[in-house]
């Protein structure tokens, strides 16, 4: 089965030609129909930038220097804004991290939902209202008729996030990119949102690309996962494979630094240091300065991403 979305050797950064400075380097992965792919890593590792590149929403000072993003065989990086607008929101949609910065405070929920239907269909006002009520009901928003009249600030954080999900799913997309959609929510609401996404995914048979730093969320919701560090994919595999046997020292560090229910460990392991600065990227492996297993070659030569089985891949000179 071919991939629904294929990101291939993507290089994204700032500057032109000789002065180009890569932020995302050699990023490659696939998303298949109906699956949930988790993308994990610390803040600043390139997870959200990867999502924005796929959506064609990079800021003006950033550009795609090389590589491709194929959706159903079409390279999205080669499309015009007009062509992208026919795909964004309809075939590929995104749930952003913070709904208060994504929803327009000056317009009602009904007005903002209506824009989605107007852009991607030829519906009457009555049909738009009916579809808006239907999708708000689907995401379990109580009294949807009244909520259409509400402004974002009049809703709770959980309700605003449900509205964002409703807007993302309004046109029944083939793939949804969820960029840390539960970060600002309390644990109870977070669980409700995750259950809702799982249920809707099953109903609509859509693929989900779940961006998170929470390994518990990945374990609960995803089938496959990729780990990113400093703008590169450094490990890939099924969730079971990566959790049971992390091959990259960074992935191992993430696992050991996460609390586990029933564990007798009193002090969690930490990964010393910070993600390298873009202007001072290490010469060899980008993780080498923080890696307890680093050898001379790690500091001198950057490792390539190597497939170690049909489902596993790792970018490391000293695989665990």
Taking the alpha carbons of the first and last residues, their distance comes to 31 Å
Number of strands: 12
**Strand and helix order:** EEEHEEHEHHHHHEHEHEEHHHEE
Overall pLDDT, averaged? 90
Overall structural class, as computed from helix and strand content, comes to: alpha/beta
Largest sheet: 8 strands, mixed
**Roughly how many Å is the radius of gyration?**
21 Å
The proportion of strand residues reads 15-25%
Given the structure, what is the number of helices? 12
Write a structural description.
The protein is of the alpha/beta class and 320 residues long. The chain has twelve helices and twelve strands. Strand 7 (175-179), helix 8 (187-204) and strand 8 form a beta-alpha-beta unit. Helix 4 (109-119) crosses helix 5 and helix 7 runs parallel beside helix 8. The longest helix is centred in the middle third of the chain and has 18 residues, at 187-204. The model has no long low-confidence stretch (mean pLDDT 90).
Describe this structure in a few short sentences.
By secondary structure, the chain is of the alpha/beta class.
Secondary structure blueprint with pairings:
Layout: E1 5-14, E2 21-31, E3 36-40, H1 47-55, E4 62-71, E5 74-75, H2 81-87, E6 92-95, H3 99-102, H4 109-119, H5 125-138, H6 144-147, H7 157-169, E7 175-179, H8 187-204, E8 207-212, H9 215-221, E9 224-229, E10 232-238, H10 239-244, H11 249-256, H12 296-300, E11 306-307, E12 313-314
Parallel strand pairs: 3-8, 3-9, 6-7, 7-8
Antiparallel strand pairs: 1-2, 1-4, 4-5, 9-10, 10-12, 11-12
Helix pairs in contact: 4-5, 5-7, 7-8
